[in-house]
Structure formats: structure tokens, C-alpha cells
Amino acid sequence: MLSTLRRIRGALRLGPWRASLRMTSRKDDFGHGHGYGTGHGRNRRDSDSGAIRAWQIWIDTGGTFTDCIARDPEGKLHRCKVLSSGALRDRVEAVRDRAIRLRGASSLPDGFLTGVELFPLGEMDGVAIQRHDATTGIVRLAGPVPESLREGSPVELRAGEEAPLLAARLITETPYGGALPPVALRLATTRGTNALLERRGASLAHFISEGFEDLLDIGGQQRPDLFALRIEKAEPLPEVVVGVRERLAADGSVIDALDRDQLAADIANLRSRGIACASITLLHGHRNPVHEIEIEEMLLEAGFEYVARSSALSPFQGLLRRSETCTVDAYLGPVISEYLHAVKKGLGDETSGLHVMTSAGGLVGSDAFRSMDSLLSGPAGGVVGAALTGYRCGRCRVIAFDMGGTSTDVSRFDGDFEYVFSHEVGPVELAVPALAIETVAAGGGSICRVEQGRLAVGPESAGAMPGPASYGAGGPLTLTDVNLLLGRLVAERFPIPIDLDAAGARFRELRSELEAAGRGTGSDEEILEGLLRIADERMAEAIRHISIRKGIDPTGFALVAFGGAGGQHACRLAELLGMEEILLPADAGLLSALGLGHAVVERFAQREILRPLDEVSESLEGWLQ
């Protein structure tokens, strides 16, 4: 048995309810089973796409920025960071007739911006770029220059492509409209997480055994906030819940056959309402999927575009968890499928390949990727990158502190990854394997405001658009602006134009609100420092949650600080937690993308046993093949 486990480099977990097997496809950088792939080497056959000498591109798309690291066919590394909105930002240096000289246009390949639309920042009407001359930085427009543009005006350049494709074009110096070279792309994305939290998923019908239609409304009967006087529960994801006439016994035997006539009428009614996505969770369907399979076949025959079946996605006992997992997958399925299709289509070349990071920190082919595995996709890459940083520095015990533009993710690595097999994202709990990551709504884009006469930070974020006030698009005061006003950031080193005056104006508005509440007695610096302390304490509490609350002393760990804002807050967090060592990676702002390059192609296979180990020990060898 032990030899089998070593050979597949997996981990078998036999608890009272289920066995879980994690299988990886190749040896890692450590020489043992910690979950890294080599991810680099000159002139090799690419393991992701089968192509020889293809570009290796690793991209992590966050809520605000998209990070990219790439290795060209000659083995040289390239880096870039773009806005997750898929737009470039620049500043006008001169205007003449239908020509504009842009500050950053001369750094791009000749013709790169041809065909792109130019918009005055914050405005909806733009004009197409007819020609781009990189030697002078001048772009000639297809129409009149917008009246609001003058020297120093910020502009946005949009081509309608997803941010990963923009990053790939910048890295490979491929102009818009041109075909990208062969690419082996590894992608992590928060697209599914954002769609779930912002309720931007598909119109969904949920099919469940008759009598349990209100299961998602009732939930686990746990108060989301124990001391809140007024509980505001989130609405369930399905737009329609259909009670299915059928019944299975606890052992999976059929008590009542499926009422196909009634079901056919319900399906026809849903299609007439334009609903084309469905999830299916039947009582005891994990023991016998026969009725769920019948319903799935009828839905597909009726023209449903996306169907999630719980017995295939989460075949375990627990009707509520199966229902939540299944509805999330169906709710986000069209969003993720459309996104990956757009990225894959943009790659173009038949020899290009696309792998996507799962919440468990492994890579799967885009065709096998499920939306329920996407919710911690981006943070998982950072965990891998933090562990790699620790390994390179001779530290096997690290705490990852990933502070990005929208949120902060923290996790612990103690010689191996820590997994959970059920995790919460927003209002739902999913029975899906994932790395143990704690997320808190504190990032560079977290909005600073006055609430009930007191300073508050987050959880709302300015995102990529409009972004912080200093981005010049009319955004609110954020932590990024606070760091700029305190002199902790250098405006000239930002990859996009920065407007310090706009940040100062937003801060004066906040100070006026404080004074109106009778609390604005401190200096500007004291108020700004107070905003930072609020955010720092919230992030420190997240680290306490993954360490002290589990009986683990964080002082014995090194703090790996990364993400666009991690280095600005690392020292104060270490002080709050009593930690004595901080590791700052060379690619701190791009570490999640680096982690993608060192992750392995793997999959989790799970099976519920519900029998004592002694009774099934002889069968384990066959299950592991």
C-alpha cells in the first residue's frame, strides 16, 4: 500500500465518511510531493500544449490588476501588469488635428495600437486609432479629437479583449488584430468569485425532490451574525425551484418512479421563460443517480445550455451542501465558460494550450474545468508562489500574505499544503477541495470613508474601474491613495498615470465629514495613519485565524509578503503578530503568476465509503489505480 501511495504521489484520506485521492502528473521542484512542477527549461517540449518552443505564459487575473510572467522560447523571462478591465491607460503629451502623442506609445511595438479605440478617461464616447507610429509615440485618429482632450489629459485604450489576451500581446509584442504565436497559457481568475459576490450569474432553475423546495431558503438555520438584531439573509441563487415527483430510499432503492410527464411540463415552462441553465439535487441521489441522470437527459434534449448534476459533482451525503455546490456550479457555469472560450479563441493558434488553476492549487485543462473549482483560483497561485519563495530561502514554514487591489488572502504552509474539503465563499458553502485560504476585504482598492462618525475601511472596493481616486477616473479615497498621500508610494513608478490632486481632494472630503461629526481633531497624517491601522488590524486578525486559533504560534513562521500592496503593510503586520522574519520575493507584485508556473497538472478524485476501514482495506489498491 505504501509503495502505491509513493508511486502516484497522492494522498489517501479515509475518514468516517469519505476517501479522497489527489493525483499529480509529474515530479515537482522539491523532489517530493509538495505540489510543484518544474515549469521551465530551454527548448523543451511544452508539457501543457505539446508544442515545441512555445511561449510559456502564466497569468493571474485579480479584481483590479492582471499579473503576467512569461518565458519566451529562448528561456528569457518577461513581466507585465495590466488592469483587469482589459484597457491600457496613458496620458496625452500633445494634440494636433487628428493626431495625438501619447506618453507611453513609443514604448510599444510599431502599429500595436492600430484599431484600438481611444477614450478620454471616464467618458463613454471614443474614437478609433487609425495608425500608431512607435518612433514618435503619435497615434492618428479616424475621427476628430474629443474636445475634452488636451495636454496632460489621461486616456484609456480599449480593444474589447479580455485582460489575459492584452497581457499576452504586450509580452509577445503582438499588435491588436495580429495572431499570437504558439502559447502554453496557465490562467488563474477571480471571474467566478466576483460574479458570485456581485450576483451576476445566469438565470437558473434548481430541480430538487418534491417537499424540499425551500431547502436553500432555510439553509443550515445558523445566524450569519450572532449578535445582529436584524438578520439580512442573502437570496438563494436559483431564480426558480422545481419540486420533482420521485423518491429514493436511503440505500438508493427506488420508492417512487420519476414523474416524467409532470417534469416535461415544468421544463417546457422554464424554456418559455428563457431559462437555459439548471442544477439537479435529489434526496439520496448520491447513492443512486438514476433519477438525476434522467432529468439531465430531458433538460439537454429540451435545449438547456448548462446542466449541473450533484451526483456527478459532489456525490456525498448532505443534501444542503450538495445543493449549494451544484447551484453555484450552474449559476457560474455560463460566465466561466464564456470567459474561457473568449481567451481560448484569442489564442488562436491550434498548437496553443490553456490550463486553469483550481481552488486546490492544481492545474486542469480548460475543457475539464468546472466553475465550482474557480472560486479560489487566483489566491491558490499565490499560495504556491509563497511556498516556493520559502523553499528558495530555506524556510519550510511560511505564512503567505497576499494583499492585492480588492482583497487580502492569507494561508499557512508548514512543509506541505493545508487542504479543506468544504469552504465558504460569500453566502454559500461548497463541498469542493480547496487550499485553506482566509480572505478579508482589505486591499489597495478598499474604500476609506466615514461611517456613523467613525473611520471605516472596506469591505467595498473601487476595483479596476473607476479605481482609486489617484487613478483619475473619479474614484473614491482608497488605501492606495492613503499610501500615496503619506509618501509611502512613488507616483512616478506606477504603470498608469497618477493624479495626486484627486486623492488629496477626496481626503479633504473625508476630513470634512469627520469634522462634521465632531471627530476630525487630529492632523492629516494622524487620520491617514488611522485608516492604515484599521486595515492592518483586520489583516492581522485573518492571520491569527489560520494560526493562533488553530493552536499554532505564528512567531515560528516567516511572513511572505506579496501582491501589489503586501510590502507596504508587512512590517506593521509582523509587529502586530510578533513575527521576526519577512520574505519579500523579487516578483512580489506578480507572485501568484509565478506560482502558476510552478504548479502541477493534477486532479482530485473523491469517493464516499461509509464503511469501516477494516472492511475496505483490501479494496484500496484497486481504487488507487
Q: What structural category arises from helix and sheet content?
A: alpha+beta
List low-pLDDT spans.
1-51
| Residues in helix, % | 25-40%
How are strands sequenced across the largest beta sheet? 5-4-3-12-19-20
The biggest beta sheet is recorded as: 6 strands, mixed
Distance between the termini: 11 Å
Short description, anyone?
The protein is of the alpha+beta class and 625 residues long.
Description:
This protein has 625 residues and is of the alpha+beta class. The protein is built from 16 helices and 32 strands. The strands form nine sheets. A six-stranded mixed beta sheet has the order 5-4-3-12-19-20, with helices on both faces. The relative contact order is 0.14. Mean pLDDT is 85; it is low at 1-51.
Question: Topology of this protein?
Answer:
Elements: H1 2-8, E1 12-14, E2 18-24, E3 55-61, E4 65-71, E5 77-83, E6 87-96, E7 99-102, E8 117-120, E9 127-133, E10 138-141, E11 154-158, H2 163-172, E12 183-189, H3 191-197, E13 204-209, H4 215-218, E14 240-244, E15 247-248, E16 254-256, H5 260-272, E17 277-281, H6 290-301, E18 306-309, H7 310-313, H8 319-347, E19 353-357, E20 363-365, H9 377-392, E21 397-403, E22 408-414, E23 419-420, E24 423-425, E25 428-430, E26 434-435, E27 437-440, E28 446-451, E29 454-461, H10 479-485, H11 500-516, H12 524-546, E30 558-562, H13 566-577, E31 582-583, H14 591-597, E32 602-608, H15 613-616, H16 620-623
Parallel strand pairs: 3-12, 12-19, 13-14, 13-17, 17-18, 21-30, 30-31
Antiparallel strand pairs: 1-2, 2-32, 3-4, 4-5, 6-7, 6-11, 7-10, 8-9, 8-11, 9-10, 15-16, 19-20, 21-22, 22-27, 23-26, 24-25, 28-29
Helix pairs in contact: 3-8, 9-14, 10-11, 10-12, 12-13
